[in-house]
């Protein structure tokens, strides 16, 4: 069976188009799988909508596996804890109220510990010691919670500090879910 050169070109073109089309459809939807992993992790956190927003705000999260999401979560928590520590330092300088100053100093110590805990969590994640990641993330969360709890009575906790405490607690919640899944 002989084909003319124009027929061969058409057949080769059709074959190539068919091959490329089937490769495209055969390729799994990587983005959907990534979204599924983020959704699955976030559904188990204390604030799922915050979790999704936080993880998706980091571009590498789109292709990250569970361990990669753990790294991203720890990085976000460290940045949050560091920013909150700076906020607390400025609140200490701004207040003349001795009661508030003591509370802020206590929060400053808590956040210093939380920053250290998160640094250790990163090391444990890198070494595959997921149980220790969980312990350190719990300790970091406790630092924010203890700071928040120090304002049970008057004078009131500033709204920006309350939000910052909540943010770190929510970020640590993500780390806890991921470390539990990895363990």
UniProtKB/TrEMBL annotation:
The keyword Disulfide bond applies. CDD domains: PMEI. Residues 33-178 form the Pectinesterase inhibitor domain. Pfam families: PMEI. The keyword ATP-binding does not apply. Residues 1-26 form the signal peptide. InterPro entries: Invertase/methylesterase_inhib, PCW_Enzyme_Inhibitor, Pectinesterase_inhib_dom, PMEI_plant. GO terms for molecular function: pectinesterase inhibitor activity. SUPFAM superfamilies: Plant invertase/pectin methylesterase inhibitor. Keywords: Disulfide bond, Signal. Belongs to the PMEI family. This is Pectinesterase inhibitor domain-containing protein. It comes from Escallonia rubra.
């Amino acid at each position: 069976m002989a084909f003319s050169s124009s027929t061969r070109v058409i057949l080769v073109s059709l074959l190539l188009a068919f091959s490329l089309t089937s490769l495209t459809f055969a390729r799994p939807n990587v983005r959907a799988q990534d979204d599924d992993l983020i959704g699955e992790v976030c559904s188990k956190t204390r604030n799922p909508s915050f979790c999704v927003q936080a993880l998706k705000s980091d571009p590498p999260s789109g292709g990250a596996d569970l361990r990669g999401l753990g790294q991203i979560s720890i990085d976000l928590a460290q940045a949050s804890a560091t920013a909150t520590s700076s906020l607390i330092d400025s609140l200490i300088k701004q207040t003349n109220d001795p009661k508030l100053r003591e509370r802020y100093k206590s929060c400053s110590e808590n956040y210093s510990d939380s920053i250290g805990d998160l640094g250790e969590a990163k090391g444990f994640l890198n070494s595959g010691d997921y149980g220790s990641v969980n312990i350190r993330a719990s300790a970091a969360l406790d630092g924010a919670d203890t700071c928040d709890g120090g304002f049970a009575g008057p004078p009131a906790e500033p709204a920006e500090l309350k939000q910052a405490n909540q943010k770190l607690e929510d970020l640590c919640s993500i780390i806890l879910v991921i470390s539990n899944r990895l363990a």
